[in-house]
Amino acid sequence: MVESAQETRVPPTALILVDVINSFFLEGMPNYYPAATEVLDPLRRLQAKARETARLIVHTVERHYPGFDDYEWRKLPRHHFIGDPDAALYKGFEPLGPREILCAKRRYSAFFATNLALFLRAGDRAGHHCGRQDQCLHSRHRPGCLRQRPLGSSAARGDQLQPAASRGSFPRGHRALFRRCCAARRRARDAGMKVAVVGYASQDYVVRLDSAPRPDRTSTILSRAIEWPRLGGSPAYVAAALMGGGVRDTMLISWVGDDRESERYRAILRNIGVDARGVGVRSGKTPVCILAYEPDGGCHCFYDPGLRQEPEIDDNQRALIAAADALCVTIGPAGATRQALALVRADAPVAWVVKADPRAVPRDLAPALAARADIVIFSRGEAAFVEEAFEGDRGAVRRPILVETRGRKEVALSQDGEIDVIPVDPVETDDPTGAGDTFAGGFLAAWLACADLAAAARSGAAAARGMLAERVRSSRLD
């Protein structure tokens, strides 16, 4: 029998890091907001000092078992499942060495009825750890040191903690996750919920030009995307952002050719966690799109559909759409869009991510989309197209939620005749491809998780900003 290492006495003060996970600090995740990152540098300094002085460091993280009932589901949407990207520790805050432990918890308190409470109480009885009931707590909420104690009976009811200098409860500050009352059909984190995204596939070739193209004149390519080609198409961007926002069962319904590139397209989807079972193979070539940006930001788009025939929904895709709990319609074949609207369940929410192309969305299809959609997401340049769609749906008794992106400035939200304008923080980039669709996916992920519209808009903006910022960083490293 191997002897265990000699037990050592733990210093009297421990550093407890609470929920330093992707969900709160990684752009595009469901509970990220820019101000949260202000605590990261102080936390890094505390962690470094604790390691330097051999203090006990406890990384306590909220993680739930997929597919099982949990205490928090009585009042909160389902979240932070074991193995999900949002529940992973944020980079740089992983446990290192024997003086650091990981304590998983299934409720948002760091102390009451958690494994950490057992660990500290056991250490207290043995004369180890901090030897006291209040601990030095540092978390995502604020960089300060809080001396806190559980609130007896109220802790049993709701896991509240009381700061030593206050009688108030501990502030969360993350409205998207802690909504007490939502419609069950909008809980994207419920076990088994599936969201289907329908539209054209594409592999993108993106370049930036020194001048606007003209006949009989050569324009020089100043730069091109690092990924050549790059995963593209409206549904792929939307699906990726839904996944990034915590919607684990996101299915892409699209079509690729019977060529070598088709497997590459599906492999990239699988690598980012998107379910590619609904990507059908058809005779022809996988579609490609060439996007050439002028110096003033204008874009020339050249799309090759590649396939020999206009694709329709096959039996496999039909079954996936019929089983979906929510549907997102992007630009795609008109016939397939009609089929998808007919197949989706009557109680399933439908989102229409608009592209003002009358070839894909003819005059008779746009009113049908407007009539069925619960949310319509479009750019300022597409507002007239959307308004015309509603003109064709004069019999509607209600209008869906309207979300209008206004470039780099703001997002306008319209519901029941009331308009709210949310400012956004722009990212300087020469390649904004996919920003609108990424916003749509981030918005929908938050809305399906019961966020209010303003919070959903901020989540969408954060998803788009995170995608663009990462693209800028990658281009600088190239």
Please specify the SSE layout and strand pairing.
Layout: E1 14-18, H1 22-25, H2 40-52, E2 56-62, E3 100-105, H3 115-125, E4 136-139, E5 146-150, H4 152-158, E6 161-163, E7 195-198, E8 202-209, E9 221-224, E10 230-232, H5 234-244, E11 250-257, H6 260-271, E12 279-282, E13 288-293, E14 299-304, H7 315-323, E15 326-329, H8 334-343, E16 350-353, H9 365-372, E17 375-379, H10 383-391, E18 401-406, E19 410-415, E20 418-423, H11 435-448, H12 453-477
Structure description:
With 478 residues, the protein is of the alpha/beta class. It folds into two domains: 14-163, 3-Layer(aba) Sandwich (Rossmann fold), CATH 3.40.50.850; 184-477, 3-Layer(aba) Sandwich (UDP-N-acetylmuramoyl-L-alanine:D-glutamate ligase), CATH 3.40.1190. It has helices at residues 22-25, 40-52, 115-125, 152-158, 234-244, 260-271, 315-323, 334-343, 365-372, 383-391, 435-448, 453-477; strands spanning 14-18, 56-62, 100-105, 136-139, 146-150, 161-163, 195-198, 202-209, 221-224, 230-232, 250-257, 279-282, 288-293, 299-304, 326-329, 350-353, 375-379, 401-406, 410-415, 418-423. A hairpin with a 5-residue loop joins β13 and β14 (299-304). α8 runs parallel beside α9 (365-372) and α9 (365-372) packs across α10 (383-391). The termini are far apart.
Which features characterize this protein?
single chain; 478 residues; alpha/beta; Rossmann fold; UDP-N-acetylmuramoyl-L-alanine:D-glutamate ligase; 9-stranded mixed β-sheet; 6-stranded mixed β-sheet; 12 helices; 20 strands; disordered N terminus
